[in-house]
Design brief:
Blueprint (H helix, E strand, L loop, with lengths): L1 E5 L6 H12 L5 E5 L10 H17 L4 E7 L4 E8 L4 E5 L14 E6 L2 H12 L4 H15 L24 H6 L2 E4 L7 H9 L10 H6 L3 E9 L4 H9 L4 E6 L23 E5 L7 E6 L2 E6 L2 E6 L2 H8 L18 E6 L63 E6 L1 E6 L4 E9 L4 H30 L30 E2 L3 H16 L5 E12 L5 H11 L4 E7 L2 E7 L2 E5 L4 E5 L1 E6 L4 H12 L2 H19 L8 E10 L3 E11 L6 H8 L7 E2 L1 H11 L10 E6 L4 E5 L3 E6 L5 E11 L5 H19 L6
Parallel strand pairs: 1-5, 1-6, 2-5, 6-7
Antiparallel strand pairs: 3-4, 7-13, 8-17, 9-10, 9-20, 10-16, 11-12, 11-15, 12-13, 14-15, 14-28, 16-17, 18-19, 19-27, 19-31, 20-21, 21-30, 22-23, 22-29, 23-26, 24-26, 25-26, 28-29, 30-31
Length: about 775
Amino acid sequence: MIIAVDGRSGAGKTTVAVELAALLRRHRTVSLFHLEDIYPGWDGLAGGVERYIGSVLEPLHQGLPATWTAWDWEARNDGASRTTAVAPVVLVEGVGSSHGRAIDYLDAVIWVDAPRQARKQRALERDGETYAPFWDAWAEQEERLLGGESKAGKDGKAGKNSLGGGLGEDATGAAWADIVVDGTHGVAQAPNSILDALTQLPALEHVLGPELARRRGLEFSADRIAGLPDAAQLFHALYGAADNAVWLDSSITEETARTAPGTAPIAAGRARFSIMADPSGSFGQLARHESAVTTVSAGQVTTRIGGPFFSWLDSVWGRKAVRAPEHYPGDFTLGWLGYLGYELKAETGGAAREASSVPASGIVGGAAPPAAPLPAPTLSALAPSAPTLFAPAPALTPAPLPAAALLFAGLAVVLDHQENCLYVLSLTSAHLPASTVEAEEFLARVTAAFHAAKHAGAQTASTRTTAPATCQSALPPASQPILPPAGTPAPRFTARDGQQRYKAMIAAAQEQIHDGNTYEVCLTTQLEARTAAKVDAWAAYQALRKRSPAPFAAFMKLDSTSVCSTSPERFLCIAPEGLMRAEPIKGTRRRDANSEADAALKRDLATSLKDRAENIMIVDLLRNDLSRFALPESLTVPRLCAIESYTTVHQMVSTIEAQLAPGSSRAQAVAAAFPAGSMTGAPKISTMAILDTLEAGPRGIYSGAIGYFSLNAAMDLSVVIRTLVLQDTHDGGTQLSLGIGGAITADSDDEAEWQEIQAKAYGVLSTLGADFPL
């Protein structure tokens, strides 16, 4: 196995290589080669790289010792002949060690990065000011060798995991590397993190078995604190300043669900726990998947793993790595939290879709021009292989987001709404002594925030005026717009598909149904807006959770993107012992403030043959999805077409359960069910292809999943519906996106479907003070 440690002079690559070699030698023999021993003088960078490739890399790659001629820097000519021995691991270090043809002989590339001025300062501090003229000449050679270089492998394609620019002067080297080290503030703490990163590369797993074993020596703790503070205040105190954080927020519980008599209760335990976490501490990581590469960042080290997302997920989750103490009742024992976007369907039988190239237009006070009416399509135009049927209307297209984004939490807080307490979760390891100190400090910080939030909550309660009791079905008044500054108008949303266009797509979907290509199409569209002033995503989420509490609400901060979800729908959960459960929703009615009218709407949903047919179709689809990794006799449907009532809507919900077959990959079981059948239609794969011809652009996060993948092999994901996505824009404003849709069957009425998507958007839009665009 040959690993290159590359980067420009002064970045710290020599330190990294020497320290990494020492760590690797604990379990095996390691050879270390420095390119500075072979460069033919201060003007010989390019020539030295060629000598290195021919006399060092080529023989080592063939399993032969490498005999090469060292450069005598004092005599300024070739010196003695030396040999680099074959070893289980060979480290080659120096500028250009992964350059050009070298990439074909390497199993991994580590690129050490640092700003130019910092690199020069370090080099001169190390070698002395007399080397300043040589530094400048050498730096010019580095720019000629590396600047703007296009890496290519034997097949002429881009080199390992080529991702492109965005990294300034070091864009080329960082782009082809498997591991990138940010040496801006030094590399003294980097080698251990690099070693952990190497274990994540599939090509190195067979060699790094002992290092992989280090990752299994984890200790999980759960400290209980009696009582519950105001959850929003606690999250803000702990994570308000964090760039990345997740709150999986059961903002509705069985006790507070707005269920009228005869309504099916929220499934037992579904809304019991809320989870708060960020990627701080020794174990913290951020993972993003895009363009067939999963990028994992941990401190100053970033790792790129090529291949499908679900293959990466299978490598980091699905085996029981920790055991929970008996006093802790939750299924979350730390691990990965975040979202899986709908476009991951490209890995599960669907096709990849790219963002629309339509230029963005309009801000608050201006809307995109309406789409022109479309004639009903012909059947021949709707073949699944056909290009997009309807060209997208001009829209406020947001910047593309990663297909999936997850953070790894080694520290978290879990609120138990049933037992009225919280648990402070922590992960420690003997290999990471700092983790023990971090766990103690986190417990102290949570305890202090807990008492502060309890005190603030008590003060608020003592001054709050209690409103008279109202009928359970009455709707709360719409919130005021939450846009700063005061007086800023509410956002004006533009529909990706207006009424006529959406109804034309319904007609197209029904033609596909009549032609036998599908029997249910879950058609969606997007509402988009751009504001001139930045929208406070945290304020928006607080307003949304009060307006539309839900068992699977969530708030995520992912750098410049925020996700505010009030989803009532579970996609899939897998318990530690392997019980799988899906709870699809099909059938929606907007609630009415008048109790009699509200009860009539509920009865209408419960007796609707059309909604029941939609629900049962998806139940059959999910039974098939779960059966692929389940014990056949374990498939059951304990709840069929039950009615659940929420603050703004009534929903028809079913439950499908199955036992995971022993030895099955849990990540692949998730992939088999993804995306949720309630967001595609049935049969899934052919219907997703039809949807690609109908819908104007990719769905992004909408229609995907939000939740966690726990270290005890449990997972729980919601369906991304009733979800507002906010992205900061470069001009100081905010891009807002809200996905909506509904299931189309042969007997769907286009006007009723148009009214249904308005009902689904109502909770979010009314909270923002916005209207549905007509």
